[in-house]
Amino acid sequence: MLKETLFSSKVLTIITHLLLIVVGVTMIVPFLWMFSTSLKDVTELYEYPPKWIPSHLNWQNYIKAMELAPFGRFYLNSLLVTFCITLGQIITACLAAYVFARIEFPGRDILFVIYLSTMIIPVQVTIIPLFLIVKQLGWFDTYQGLIIPFIARAFPIIFLRQFFMTLPKDLEDAAKVDGCGHLRFLWKILLPTARPALSTIGLFTFLFHWRDYLWPLVITNTTEMRTLPVGLRYFVSEQGTQFHYMMAASIIVTIPIVLIYLFAQKQFIKGVTMTGLKG
Amino acid sequence: MIGVMNGKKSAKFHIFKNKNIRRNFWDSMLFLSPSLVVFTVFIFIPIAMAFYLSLMKWDLLTADRQFVGLKNYIYYLTNPFFYKVLLNTVYFAAAHIPLDLIITLGLALLLNQKLKGLSFYRTIYFIPVISSMVAVSAVWIWIYEPESGGLANYVLGLFGISPLGWLHDPHWAMPAIILVSVWKGLGYNIVIFLAGLQNIPDIYYEAARIDGANAWQQFRRVTLPLLSPITYFVILMGIINSFKVFTQIEVMTPEGGPLNSTTVLNLYLYQEAFHKYRFGRASALAFIMFAIILIITKIQRSVSHKNVHYE
Predict the structure, then answer these.
(1) Residues 6+ apart with CB under 8 A from B24
(2) Which end of chain A, C or N, has fewer beta carbons within 10 A?
(3) Cβ–Cβ below 8 Å for A257 and B131
(4) Same domain, B42 and B153
(5) Same domain, B156 and B298
(6) Which of B39, B121, B266 is the closest to A124 by Cβ?
(7) pTM for the whole thing?
């Protein structure tokens, strides 16, 4: 009897692993196919059955892809834009979250509800006027246009407020007795303890805007101003059937973020479970 | 004597408090001003403008603006094409959400059995989640290639199934995109479900076992009820995200697919606004979309009050 259950539980474990491995392979195969295709010669593309290892490794596909579109520039644009948005959101969020968590004044709670309400408004609802306003400001096809509308968002504010509220109130009283102003208290005492929360929300914001697609698609015009997703999108539509270049470009776009993820996956997973939001 | 001292003290305290309140108020305003300015200029004013525009006839090309009242709304609500687009969106949601839910919950349950290699599997499943949607769409365009060379048709061929047109076939374009979307998002919901499962205390299972519950009964009576807040969250986000789906559709079928079979609300809005420059009309469409999302959230909330168990 005992032997039997042991045996069946062993079989179950093996079946479970087999299932999990099949799913794992499904997750990975498209990336392997991407990589394999990126090294193929154009003549091998349409071979049947599909060939996984190209007869000759055409690394020059990558050089060609970089020549066809300025992916270095796209990277710089994405880095600059995402970095500035993240920094902006963190600064504005620290200041606002501090107020909502630790200063009392009349009207604070109403204001907080107004802040909260911005979260339910999808970007699609505001995108046309946003486009018109940014254009009016002369920021069409500029970094300002890509960055400034997003330097404050409700989500990091709410997230940090939650964190600031967990810190003991005594902290403040002690600091006040020492004649410490709000800004100094925030800078010297709250922020150093908030470092883990800051890095979680920073990572989240960075990833969210790194992959932002609709706004850069709408607000950029010239190739020089495109961010990575938009740059790759035009590359895909321009190259049509040149799949070996397309896949080389896709690898160029995919590899760095996957590598960063593999090295920092604990933070990624923690970020997902803590923020519970999808990019 | 004592009374006088007390009075003095409280008066002094009162002034101090007032001064403090005023200082608090101005400090608060100072701290809030950056976010308040951004929200006002880039969220509040745009909402008001969007509503105003939705009542106007205004093409960027003709440049003359004209008040038309609710005509833009009526235009969409009486337009069969709008309903086709709405149906496409509902199709995406109705296929994507249950499929995603069953697969991710199933996998999370498998992974939750204190299995060896849990973090390995989780790492692998999460790779599509963090990769670029555009790059992923690009490789799937290539996988779906209907001519020889397409991996999808090759795999079908191994099972003796004749090749499909995938993104070029009006019947298969949407399923093809749904498949990519499920594949891309799996790892995310698995992580969410796993976190939920790990939060269920073992005592509940022990109690159930002592009462003689089998595995299915434990799942049905312990896991599902205690997981319901997470499931609710996953479904709600799934619906909202389905109504906002855009990137993979715009990249894989930029024109909305064969016979507009993949034109979803968000793509339609984008085309109306930024291909045809019908800013007035498109604003009305944006508000209709917003209303739909709000209604769904409301319905969901009332349904959840009945069915979600909070511990």
Answers:
(1) A103, A104, A105
(2) N
(3) yes
(4) no
(5) yes
(6) B266
(7) 0.90
